[in-house]
Structure formats: structure tokens, C-alpha cells
Design goal:
With 373 residues, the chain is of the alpha+beta class. Helix content is 31%, strand content 23%. Its cofactor is Mg(2+); Mn(2+).
């Protein structure tokens, strides 16, 4: 990233943190958390211990970070190396990202940026100008991406509440600041479980490793199979609703399942898994030493804020998570995809000098689709 672009982003981010520090969620038991941050064009600084909001504010003002992180884990000595921290427990966190949902819309709003000649083009595996394969892909997520991610969040919340007996008030949903959502579970019975158990929990939520016997299908005596009722709780009930669709069709479909046999039933389960399993990133959930983007901080991939969603259904990240100024800025933009922020449309821009509000300029610069003029 060019020096002028870095200075522009740092100035914009610093102003945000000065004016909107109230949006930063200073975590409970702050002194037991590990903090970390990155600066533009530099690596990660970790193993930082912070006592309170004043020290956190000082970190923002002194370093002007591109990204700030905080552990979901609680430690006795958060500033020491990992093997000396003395891990106590960790909040449960789930990551749902539009890029993992296999959405057909993605190709319409993803661009390829050549790392050799900087050519920007619609999604391609090689540069259309110099033929290099050193390609970086950037997505400008659309409404469908966000809505699809919301659907996964709703599915996850249902499982957490109905199957795992987690109080709804202990589930906090945050827009990640880019393409999805982070779901935090505080103060649950799962606080002290380790990485292996969290991996198993992720498998349960994703509907992984399901076998026909769980749903009543017997391999050797199929005529004795007993399938779940339509109103059963948990995965058996979800399976029933997905496969039978209504109580009236249950008997007919069961007959078909028995005729088709065990192997066919396994394929049915695999297909059902794609629809009713929650598409979370299991590596995030199982990691008990990870540091996560701090709520209220800016995501340097977009210039948008990681913010609490009080009403997920109505939440619009492109208006509610955009807090940077409206001050006009001149940029050289090469952004072939139209995008909307704060209810205003921008682009497409093809190698042109344009004047846009700071929040739109930051968005494009963060996506490597513009530079300061």
C-alpha cells in the first residue's frame, strides 16, 4: 500500500477512535484478556495486557492500528508467552462468513487484482493483462451475502438456545466489519471445555458425521426402522421437517426411504446436512487461544466497524456500520463494481479520478480498488 494511502487511512481511523471510542466494547475481566493489534503494512503485535478502558484508549491513540484484537480466553498472565499464560476458560465464538456459503452471487461482485501489474478485472484466475497467476481476490459483498449470513446466524441461535440450553441474553451477534457475523456466547456451561470438545460442538452444529442409525434407519433390518416424528426436538425434528416437509407426506416418504435402502438414506442425510447444518468456521470455534477483532473497532478490509446487531433482521451493515466522515476526498478509482454505503451508490469507476466521501474512499482503498489522488 502506498504511503499516501496509509496516511489517509491512519488519519481516518484515528479520527474515528477519537470521536467514537464509546462504540468500543471494553470486555469484561479486561485484565485477564490478551490484546493484540496490527498497523498498516506491518505484522501482528500480541501478548499485550490491558487493565482498563483508559489503557485501551491509549493503545488506539498511540499506535493508530489498522486492526485491534482481543482474546476470547481468560488468562492469569495474558502478557506472557502462550505456554506461560495459564489458561482459565474461554467464551464460545462462532464465525459465519459469506465467502464460506457457496453463493452464486459471489462472482458478480468479486474482482481479481494482479499483484504484478495491479490490473483490476472481474473475477479471473490469471491476469488478463500480463497473464500472471499472482492474483488477489477482493469481494464487495451484496445484500444477498448479508441476508444469507443472517440466515445462518438464526439457525445457529436456534441450536444454541433449543439444543444447548444457552440463554438468549448470553448470545451476542456482531457484524464482523466485512462479510459476515461473529456470534459470542458468554457465561455458558461450555466456558471451560477445551479445543477437542469445542471441535465436537462445532461438528454437532454443522450436522457433521451424522449416521443413518441416529435417525432410525437400520442397516440390516430396515423394516424395523423408526423415523423421527415431525415435532421432535433437536436434529431429529429438523431432519423430519426438512425431509418430510409436512405431516401428511411423512408415511409416503418413509416408504420411499425404506425401498431405496440404507446407502440411499446416507446420501439423503448428506444432502440434508447442506441445508440444515450451520455453516460456521470450525477452526475458529475450536481455537481457545485465538484473538478476535475487538467489537467497536474498524475492520481494515473494509473500513466498516465491527458492531453489535441489536435487531439482526433489520440490521443493514452498509448504513449502520459505516461511521467515517462525509468529508470529500479525491481518489484514483478502479472499482468495476457498484457498491452502496450510507444509502448512497458509488461506481462503477474505471481508472478515473473521482471525488467521493471519506467513508467511500476508505472502503475502496481498503479493498485496493483506489488510491489517494
Amino acid at each position: 500500500m502506498q504511503e499516501a494511502d496509509i496516511k489517509f487511512l491512519e488519519d481516518s481511523f484515528k479520527k474515528y477512535y477519537f470521536e467514537h471510542f464509546d462504540l468500543i466494547r471494553v470486555p469484561e475481566r479486561t485484565f485477564e484478556r490478551e490484546f493484540g493489534y496490527q498497523k498498516f503494512n506491518s505484522g501482528m503485535t500480541r501478548h499485550i495486557s490491558i487493565k482498563d478502558d483508559k489503557e485501551l484508549h491509549l493503545l488506539f491513540m498511540q499506535n493508530i492500528p489498522s486492526d485491534v484484537y482481543c482474546s476470547n480466553a481468560y488468562y492469569s498472565f495474558p502478557n506472557l508467552p502462550m505456554n506461560e499464560k495459564d489458561w482459565k476458560e474461554a467464551d464460545l465464538i462462532f464465525d459465519i462468513d459469506a465467502k464460506d456459503l457457496n453463493l452464486s452471487c459471489r462472482e458478480n461482485h468479486t474482482v481479481s487484482i494482479c499483484n504484478e501489474c495491479k490490473q483490476v478485472s472481474k473475477i479471473s484466475e490469471h491476469c488478463l493483462k500480463c497473464n500472471s497467476t499472482k492474483i488477489e481476490k477482493k469481494s464487495l459483498p451484496c445484500k444477498n451475502c448479508i441476508d444469507s449470513s443472517k440466515t445462518e446466524v438464526s439457525k445457529l441461535s436456534e441450536i444454541l438456545i433449543d439444543d444447548l440450553a444457552i440463554d438468549q441474553e448470553n448470545i451476542h451477534v456482531y457484524f464482523s466489519g466485512n462479510e459476515g457475523f461473529h456470534v459470542y456466547v458468554y457465561g455458558s456451561q461450555f466456558q471451560q471445555i477445551g479445543s477437542r470438545e469445542r471441535s465436537e460442538l462445532a461438528d454437532y452444529i454443522m450436522f457433521n458425521g451424522i449416521i443413518p442409525e441416529t435417525f432410525g434407519m437400520k442397516k440390516f433390518k430396515p423394516n424395523r426402522s423408526s423415523f423421527p416424528d415431525f415435532n421432535e426436538k433437536g436434529w431429529r425434528g429438523r431432519f423430519s421437517k426438512q425431509v418430510f416437509s409436512s405431516k401428511s407426506k411423512r408415511s409416503k416418504i418413509i416408504s420411499e426411504l425404506l425401498v431405496n435402502g440404507y446407502s440411499s438414506f446416507q446420501k439423503t442425510l448428506d444432502n440434508v446436512s447442506e441445508n440444515i447444518g450451520v455453516k460456521i468456521d470450525p477452526n475458529v470455534t475450536m481455537d481457545i487461544h485465538r484473538i478476535f477483532r475487538l467489537p467497536g473497532s474498524i475492520n481494515s478490509k473494509s473500513g466498516l466497524t465491527k458492531i453489535l446487531c441489536k435487531n439482526l433482521t433489520k440490521f443493514d451493515p452498509y448504513s449502520e456500520a459505516s461511521f467515517l466522515s462525509d468529508e470529500s476526498v479525491e481518489v484514483f478509482a478502479n472499482c468495476p463494481i457498484e457498491f452502496s454505503l450510507k444509502n448512497k451508490k458509488f461506481g462503477p469507476f474505471i481508472n478515473e479520478k473521482v471525488t467521493v466521501p471519506t467513508f467511500a474512499a476508505v472502503y475502496m482503498v481498503c479493498k485496493k480498488l483506489a488510491t489517494i489522488a
